Amino acid sequence: MTGSLVAVPAVVAFVAALLLVPAVKRVAIATGLVAMPKADRWHRRQIPLLGGLAIVVATLAGVAIGQPRSQPVWLLLACATGLAIVGLVDDVRPLRPQTKLFLQIFAAALMSVFGLQFQFTGLPALDMLISLVWLVGITNALNLLDNMDGLAAGIAAIVAGFRLLFFLADGHLEGAMLAAVILGACLGFLVYNVNPASIFMGDTGSLFLGFLVGGLSLVGGWPYARGTTLVLVFPMLVVLVPIFDTTFVTLARILAGRPVSQGGRDHTSHRLVALGMSERQAVLTLYGLALVGGAIAWLSYRYGLGYGAVLAVVLALGTVLFGIFLGRLQVYPPDAVPQSGVALLLANFTYRRQVVTVAVDTVLVVVAYYSAYLLRFEGTFRAERPIFEQSLPVVLLAQVTAFLVLGTHRGIWRYTGVSDLLRLAQACALGTILSVLGVSFLYRFTGYSRAVFVIHGVLLFVAVAATRLSFRTLDSALRKESPDAEPVLIYGAGKGGLLVLREIRGNDALGWRAVGFLDDDRSKQGTRVDGVLVHGGGAALEAAVLATGARRVVLSTPALDTALTEALVTQCEAMGVHLVQSRVQFTPLT
After folding, report:
1. 504-512 own/partner pairs: CB under 8 Å, 24+ apart
2. Alpha helix locations (H) across 527-561?
3. Dihedral sign computed on CA atoms, order 140, 145, 147, 151
4. Which DSSP category does 351 fall into?
5. Is 465 helix (H, G, I), strand (E, B) or coil?
6. Residue 43 has pLDDT above 70, yes or no
7. In the prediction, which pLDDT does 367 show?
8. Does position 509 have pLDDT exceeding 80, yes or no?
9. Cβ neighbours of residue 383 closer than 8 Å, sequence gap 6 or more
């Protein structure tokens, strides 16, 4: 019986959306309500709007079948529908941003007036303010996220799916019914909205879904976190992607001296495509991030906040680093400059990379030490908490000091190599030794576990090494080589050749792409260096050129005898291939 109360309305919403979208598409085309291509927008052809109208009607139909008696459910649905009407008007005749914002605040305030707000501080006025910021923020975040085919509707479906799990676990059937209906309506719309989309939801759908997914955190509440700081943390995990994208774009535009309200192709999804992903891959990546956030919230709910807190901090840190990585991509005009004092200060701050590195390392020290206690004592950690809290300042000071002494904050992450990892290992070992000495001096090591410090050192090294390698790994995974780049063979598959390969991949100004190595060492022939095949020595030059279409050969080392160099020059001239020397600024030899 319980299943039918949830499943039947969801199926009705799915089928209704599936049937309504073609109808509203025809209406949109007939009335000229289509999204026109613009320089600052992603799509490059006319796409009908009004898809959001199908989502709204499908949701209302599903809820009508479910017949909820809960006042919060009807109130949330009524406020969201009101904003859908605002969105519809805006789709037909654009409203001023101030007008839309005022109406969003009014709808959120109406929710609070009827008691739907977070119980966060115990102060009604402050709780109301927090709830207003939450609802208006999530509504606009999902609206901004509607920038690529299938993205906003898919994220809304994922959020609704996780809230469905929470409602079912809490026994809140009417909340579960509403979440299931939203899930069904989004899935029905996605049939037509995934890449390549044949219809957009417009502001009608984005404002409606944004307010609904934000309001789901107020309907039924979060019983395991009510009255604590976690009352906002776990809903934030569930709606991680809209929050991340909005925060990222806002900061990026401020730092680039652009108005925050100005549209553009600078969202996380756009940057992922610019890095080499297809549109579908970019959307699936953000789906994955949303699923991870929701899964951490669910695991924390089911198995306790101990491990969940660690996972949440790691996810937050990883998301911040991901944002920094994406922020390196040049998407704004080169003459864009910050206007505000804070933005100017950040843009001109010489040591911002070192400060970020120290801050990341500090967080990881705390996370690793906390995780070491969880692993060592598992279910009895609560009894060990006073010991953990007592020693944490000592461990933090000792480990950060070791990092600073050995200069681990000075390296550039995307160039991290074996020597950098060895230095990190030494710093983690030194920090562990200093921690033990400090605890022994202050507390005589009474009640402490040696295993905790060993586990902490190992976990810290793994975590810090992962952060250092993250940019290099992402660069490699998302590397996009232009098909128009000139194919190049590298002569020498040793250290010099590897340096040349990295320079070719990291320097777009060269306009080259490495298609193979040449090396006279027989043991290397047929192997691969960083994914690039070693074809053979000088005798294999002609065959390698024919096989790869190379138009240039780069000598990675000057340590070639005169006879070999002359032979290569002769061969290259005969084939019309350029020969250059890397050690002399790629000066042509032929």
Report:
1. 504/554, 505/475, 505/479, 505/481, 506/414, 506/475, 510/586, 511/482, 511/484, 511/485, 511/486, 512/485, 512/486, 512/487, 512/488, 512/552
2. 541-548
3. negative
4. T
5. helix
6. no
7. 93
8. no
9. 377
- Tell me the C-alpha distance between 291 and 241, whole Å: 9
Residue found under tokens 């109301």:
128
The C-alpha atoms of residue 332 and residue 345 are separated, in whole angstroms, by: 19
What confidence category does residue 182 fall into, taking pLDDT thresholds of 50, 70 and 90? Answer: very high
Q: Is 454 exposed, middle or buried (0-12, 13-18, 19+ CB in 10 A)?
A: middle
Q: What backbone phi and psi angles, to 5 degrees, belong to 38?
A: -135, 160
Rounded (5°) CA angle 247-249-252: 105
Instruction: Give this prediction's pTM.
Output: 0.82
Per-residue confidence band for 435, with pLDDT thresholds at 50, 70 and 90: very high
What is the mean predicted confidence (pLDDT) over 375-391?
Answer: 85
Record the tokens describing residue 276, joined without a space: 């080499």
Q: Are 114 and 75 in contact (CB under 8 A)?
A: yes
Q: What are the helix (H) ranges across 93-150?
A: 97-113, 124-145
- The amino acid at residue 235 is P
Closest CA to 262 of 254, 270, 274: 254
How far is the C-alpha of 15 from the C-alpha of 6, rounded, in Å?
A: 15
To which residue do tokens 């669910």 refer? 298
Do residues 17 and 32 touch, judged by C-beta distance below 8 A? no
